[in-house]
Amino acid sequence: MTAAPRDGAERWTHLVFVATLLLKGALGVMLIVLSLIDIAVIGLTVHEWRGRHRQLRAAR
């Protein structure tokens, strides 16, 4: 069974639908990557803060 040929409006609607899905996917991946970067920066900041805190304690 073959699909019925699409007219111009159906093609345009399909293209917009696919484009929005791709955009949503790209935004989702970007959100995940930025979240991972944020977690890494927070982890490094806490690690650095703990190191300074230990140095200050040792200096007493």
TrEMBL record:
> Which residues span the membrane?
15-46
**Species classification:** Bacteria, Pseudomonadati, Pseudomonadota, Alphaproteobacteria, Rhodobacterales
Q: Organism source for this protein?
A: Maritimibacter harenae
Keywords from UniProt, A to Z, are: Membrane, Transmembrane, Transmembrane helix
Name of the protein: Uncharacterized protein
